[in-house]
Specification:
123 residues; alpha+beta; Alpha-Beta Plaits; four-stranded antiparallel β-sheet; two-stranded antiparallel ribbon; 3 helices
């Protein structure tokens, strides 16, 4: 088995606007799709972790120059799509990780980056 991270990217502003225009019932149904996806991962024994992220406006980026920590507000680059969350799955193959990525509820509105996680042996 190998672990993969499924990074969920989308247009944060469009997503917020879309969600705000939904009725409360539609919002609950939309969130229900996420809960159902997570439950499916868990039942398949593939779920390791997963979380949504706060908006990019709350992000800070840290760099170190000449031993000094520099903190800037926001993400490190202006992009059309922002990282909104992730899942970590433990599956037998990259193909299966790609299949899980395609099932993510927002895959039809954004992009899902799939990357294998490196495992290092501690000395």
């Amino acid at each position: 088995m190998s672990q993969y991270i499924l990074l969920i990217y989308g247009d944060e502003a469009a997503g917020n606007e879309r969600f705000a225009q939904m009725s409360e019932e539609e919002q609950q149904a939309d969130m229900g799709r996420w809960w159902a996806y997570t439950q499916e991962l868990e039942q398949a024994g593939a779920h390791v972790a997963g979380e949504a992220l706060h908006p990019t406006e709350t992000a800070q980026t840290v760099t170190v120059e000449n031993g000094e920590r520099l903190v800037t507000d926001g993400p490190f680059a202006e992009t059309k799509e922002q990282l909104g969350g992730f899942y970590i799955v433990d599956v037998p193959s990259k193909e299966e990780a790609l299949e899980w990525a395609a099932k993510i509820p927002s895959a039809d509105r954004g992009k899902i980056e799939v990357r294998e996680i490196m495992v290092f042996e501690q000395p």
